[in-house]
Design brief:
The chain has 92 residues and is α+β, with helices and mostly antiparallel strands. It is built from three helices and four strands. Strand 3 and strand 4 form a beta hairpin. The termini are close together. The model has no long low-confidence stretch (mean pLDDT 97).
Length: 92
């Protein structure tokens, strides 16, 4: 079964996600911004979700992680939790 490793930043608003994505595009560190802004407990690890299998995350999140290019920041992606910026580190 497919697995992947990803980082993410979870925020309440699309506007906030867009502002953070702009900072990332200008060279800001993903982990630092995750620790500062993310609402997810993974923020303690710089947004690192570790390795997980397909189907473990909500569908919209899974679709990004398992279908989009790795090592790029994707989003904002809306889920029931809020808006995510997702960086896929690798996929198996």
């Amino acid at each position: 079964m497919a697995s992947a490793c990803a980082l993410h930043i979870l925020v309440k608003t699309e506007k906030q996600a867009i502002e953070i994505k702009a900072q990332l595009a200008n060279g800001a560190n993903f982990g630092v911004l995750a620790k500062k802004h993310s609402l997810c407990p993974s923020k303690k690890k710089g947004g690192d979700l570790g390795e997980f299998r397909r189907g473990k995350m909500v569908k919209a999140f899974d679709d990004v992680v398992f279908k989009r290019p790795i090592l790029k920041v994707h989003g904002p992606i809306r889920t029931k939790f809020g808006y995510h910026l997702i960086k896929i580190l690798y996929r198996n």
